Amino acid sequence: MYEGTFAELYDRFYRGRGKNYAAEAADVARLVREYRPTASSLLDVACGTGTHLRHFADHFDDVAGLELSTSMIEISRPQLGNIPVLQGDMRDFQLDREFDAVTCMFSSIGHMRDITELEQTLTSFARHLGPGGVVVIEPWWFPQTFLDGYVAGDVVRDGDLTISRVSHSARVGDVTRMEIHWVVADPESGAHHHVEHYDITLFERKEYESAFAASNLAVNYVEGGPSGRGLFVGIPA
Question: Full-prediction pTM beyond 0.90?
Answer without folding.
Answer: yes
